[in-house]
Amino acid sequence: MTSATAAATNAIQHTHQQQNEYMKGFHDLLKIPSISTDPAYKAEVERCANWIVDEMKRIGLRNASAIPTSGHPVVYGEWLEAGADKPTILLYAHYDVQPVDPLALWDTPPFEPSVREGRLYARGVCDDKAAVWGILKSVESMMAANGTLPVNIKVFFEGEEESGSPSMEPFIVANKDMLKADLFLICDGGFDPGNPEQIYAVRGIVGIEVTVTGPDHDLHSGMFGGVVQNPLHVVGKIIGSFHDEAGRVQIAGYYDRVKALSASEKANLDALFDPQIEDLKKKAGVSHFWAESLGTLAERGTALPTLDVNGMWGGYQGEGTKTVLPAQASFKATLRLVPDQDPYEIGRLLNQHVQQFASDTISIQTRVSGEGWPCAFLFEGPVVDALNQSYFTTIGKTPKWMRIGGSIPISGMFQRELDAPMSGFGFGAGDNYHSPNEYLILDHFRDSMDTFIHFMYKLAEPGVVS
User: Fold this and answer.
1) Which of 120, 131, 171, 357 has the most C-beta neighbours closer than 10 Å?
2) Torsion 457-460-463-466 (CA) sign
3) Cβ neighbours of residue 316 under 8 Å, at least 6 residues apart?
4) H helix intervals, 317-359
5) H or E stretch including 62?
6) C-alpha to C-alpha distance for 5 and 7, rounded to whole angstroms
7) Judging by DSSP bridges, how do beta strands 439-441 and 152-158 pair with one another?
8) Three-class secondary structure of residue 285 per DSSP
9) For residues 297 and 311, what is the distance between their CA atoms, to the nearest angstrom?
10) What are the domain boundaries of the chain?
11) Which pLDDT does position 1 carry in this prediction?
């Protein structure tokens, strides 16, 4: 047994010995309703940030603080005493959580953690407080068992991931020196020992809200129908223009930067997704998927950009009939982007497309928001090998490497602004991440911590992180 292997074993044994104490602290963290999207919880988000800072200081991280932003605080701490010959790893997770609605569907209160049949139920338990706690407790165990860490670390916990990270890009730009590292590890995702998966690409995102205005007030449709243009009709025309019959997005220039998958990558993704097609249909509640001529399920779901209308409104919504011609109608849409698309460019192209429907009888206002960059993580090389080996040491399996269709806005910001290699690691094994009764499988969480500790010691080996 090498000294590094012995050190990892000592740290893992410490996590197991302290399991009950660690769980008590985790429950305390989960009790704080750090809902970033609702201004009513601003003070609770700040309280959560300060609580984490106190915990960082207690376990020995240096320069721990809750740093103000134009939104919610960034929690930062570091330990840079492993030596100049060791790499510096920036560890990212987020401490904010989703809203809890509909509250009536929760079996137990969302901020009163409850253990049932090996599952821990609470809002944010998987997404993403498991990563916050997993990082801190792994660091504590390595320090307690060995008196040191195998690598230098910088810990960055965000407080607004669930609201699109609106303050993070200016914060990153203003703090490049503080955040400089040899490897960024995005700890926002799952850990399933039965079916281990590792993310290597995430899509970017653009959000848009469009408001179509006609007359300056609602009108009687019997008097003005056919005379005054109806904003609801224009909204329908705009939405109908977004896709052709095959499902391809019709915004000019939308696909210009989209790169085709290599044959090997496509084969890898298809092998992962094809066995799941029938299960995914059941999960979606559909008998057929759409836009099949554009590519395989894996391509359409992870490697091609999309455009989806998320909501529309205008006019009368109540019972019965009201013969009104509405003054305004609106809709919201989101676009998922792939490397190397530029969210700001896509926002401009979308606005240009929508404005084609303006006229002397209709005005159109667009509000583009929530721009998030797509991101490609490491897919091969020594870091990937180290992560595969760490999985195998813990669970006897290596993960499947895959793209996901969702977005982690800050990962693209890190990659674009700080230009360092990036990988991912997930602690939150469970389900119902954005739904009632979110839960974490406790045995899987413990396995993830063991794997993470092995990975930290692997990263310290010469040549793994260049």
Assistant:
1) 131
2) positive
3) 322, 324, 326
4) 343-355
5) strand 62-67
6) 5
7) unpaired
8) coil
9) 25
10) 3-202+374-459, 204-262+288-372
11) 64
What is the DSSP secondary-structure string of 385-400?
HHHHHHHHHHHS--PE
The number of angstroms, rounded, from the C-alpha of 75 to the middle of its chain's C-alpha atoms is 18
CB 76 within 8 A of CB 50: no
Nearest to 136 by CA among 24, 13, 32, 53: 53
pLDDT given at position 168 = 94
For residues 339 and 327, give the distance between their C-alpha atoms in angstroms, rounded to a whole number: 40
* Residues with pLDDT less than 50, the chain: none
Does the domain at 204-262+288-372 match CATH 3.30.70.360? Answer given as yes
| Residue 144: partners with Cβ closer than 8 Å, 6 or more residues away | 11, 14
Residue with tokens 């809750």: 66
Which residue type, as a one-letter code, is found at position 449?
M
Q: What are phi and psi of 111, to 5 degrees?
A: -110, 25
Q: Which CATH superfamily does the domain covering 3-202+374-459 fall into? A: Zn peptidases (3.40.630.10)
| Pairing state between β 375-376 and 119-121 | unpaired
CB-hemisphere CA count at 13 Å for 279? 5
425-449 per-residue burial string, b: 16 or more CB within 10 A, e: under 16: bbbbbbebbeebbbbbbbebbbbbb
How far is C-alpha 215 from the geometric centre of its chain's CA atoms?
41
- The residue type at 331: F
CA nearest neighbour of 161 among 396, 408, 348: 408
Number of Cβ atoms within 10 Å of the Cβ of 359? 11
As a whole number of angstroms, the distance between CA 85 and CA 378 comes to 22
Distances (CA, A) of 24 to 34, 287, 462: 18, 45, 37
Q: What is the pTM of this model?
A: 0.85
What's the pLDDT score for residue 189?
A: 86
Distance of alpha carbon 163 from its chain centroid, rounded?
10
The identity of residue 97, as a single letter, is V
CB neighbour list of residue 319: distance below 8 Å, 6 or more residues apart: none
In 102-236, which ranges are E strands? 114-116, 119-121, 152-158, 183-186, 197-202, 204-213, 219-220
CB 49 within 8 Å of CB 32: no
What letters, b where the CB count within 10 A reaches 16 and e where it falls short, cover 84-103? eebbbbbbbbbbbbbbbeee
Angle between helices 129-146 and 19-30 (to 10 degrees): 150
